[in-house]
Amino acid sequence: MPRFRRTKAYRLLLDSFFDVLLTLARDGIFIEQVCANAFSSSGEAMCKTFKLSYVRPHTERGKIYLGDVPHLLKSGSWDGLVPLRKAYAERSSAPSNEEHV
Question: Which residues span the domain enclosing 58?
Answer without folding.
Answer: 3-89
